[in-house]
Amino acid sequence: MSIPKQFFRVVYERSNLLSLDVVSGACAGMYFFADMMRISLFWYYYLLLALAVWTIYTFDHLLDAKKVSKIALSKRHRFHQQHFKRLAPALVLTGLAGAVLSFHFLTYERLLSAGTILFFLIVGVMIGIRLGNRKLAVAKEWLIATFYVAGIILVPVIQLDFGFISGNWLYYVPAYFILAWFNLVYFSYLDGALDRAEGHHSIMTVLGKRKTRNLLGTLSVVGLIYGLFLFFHLPSYFHRYTLVWALMMLTHVLFFMERPVNITEARRRLELIFSFPWLLLIL
Q1: Which among 203, 152, 124 has a CA at the least distance from the CA of 36?
Q2: SS3 for 210-267, per residue?
Q3: What was the pLDDT predicted at 190?
């Protein structure tokens, strides 16, 4: 019994270090909006999104790992330091594969152009924040949350026939943004000491612990009130989407209120929670 348990634990940890749970969460988010809009997406849209998300996140982690001159304190950064020579070529190959497959599958010019612009805009902003003034780091989590939401709704929105479906799906765009922003600010809050020690800048290192905690408290209240608004304002058809989103939001708020001792495990669980929308396949 111990061997399978240990095996699954290693797979679980490696998946997290390689950001595969983030990839799953992004694809689940796209499914969340596509299902709500009653749009059936081909499998290759999920593959292309997975490649793009993995490329962006791995690029970001490799930049962080390269910046740290000594052995990184963060397990994720240390992993990318140790496997830099393997991950860097894998990053290039994944990026090239994503580009080739995009030109092959995305025959719709508008979608290909929008996806390409968004991809390079994200990479450019990531580099710009690192090269810019330290205070720009305050906007890092906000920008990433904005790009994250834009990325998961891009394909469904472009394929949506606005003349045959209500605009109620729009209520979930700010809902997902609140969730993603809370997630990123909370991770910054948890990793504040490590970021300072390694020389990384984030909203936590710029604003400080008290202001960052106040922001998280505000987002908690806003998120929970917005969830109640969705339940009472939208038709019953949308209740299952509100329920899935509310479960993700509430879990984040509970983690924030309980102040977990094991930061690494808390991070893994919260990143995995973004895969909750896959529950819609059986609901």
Answers
A1: 152
A2: HHHHHHHHHHHHHHHHHHHHHHHHCCHHHHHHHHHHHHHHHHHHHHHHHCCCCHHHHH
A3: 87
List Cβ<8 Å contacts ≥24 apart for 90-99. 90/58, 91/55, 91/58, 91/59, 91/62, 94/51, 94/54, 94/55, 94/58, 95/51, 95/55, 97/51, 98/48, 98/51, 98/52, 98/55
> Stretch 240-262: mean pLDDT, rounded?
91
Instruction: Give the residue among 213, 238, 237, 242 at the shortest CA–CA distance from 226.
Output: 242
Helices vs strands, H then E, count in the chain: 13, 0
Q: Which two tokens stand for residue 22?
A: 């983030």
User: What is the C-alpha to C-alpha distance for residues 151 and 51, in angstroms, rounded to an integer?
Assistant: 12
pLDDT at res. 223? 96
Mean pLDDT along residues 105-128: 86
Report the C-alpha gap between 110 and 143 in whole angstroms: 23
Between helix 20-36 and helix 43-67 the angle, nearest 10°, is: 140
Question: Tokens 């939001």 identify what position?
Answer: 249
Q: What is the pLDDT of residues 43-63, one digit of tens each?
A: 999 999 999 999 999 998 898
Q: What does the alpha-carbon distance between residue 122 and residue 208 come to, in Å, rounded to a whole number?
A: 26
- Please tell me the pTM assigned to this model: 0.92
pLDDT, tens only, 123-153:
888 888 777 666 777 888 899 999 999 999 9
- Measuring CA to CA, which residue among 67, 44, 52, 62 is closest to residue 22? 52
Paired tokens of 82: 């140790």
Q: What are phi and psi of 259, to 5 degrees?
A: 55, 75
Average pLDDT, the chain: 88
CA distances from residue 254 to 146, 210, 258, 267 in whole angstroms, order as listed: 23, 18, 6, 13
Tokens read off for 142: 């906000």
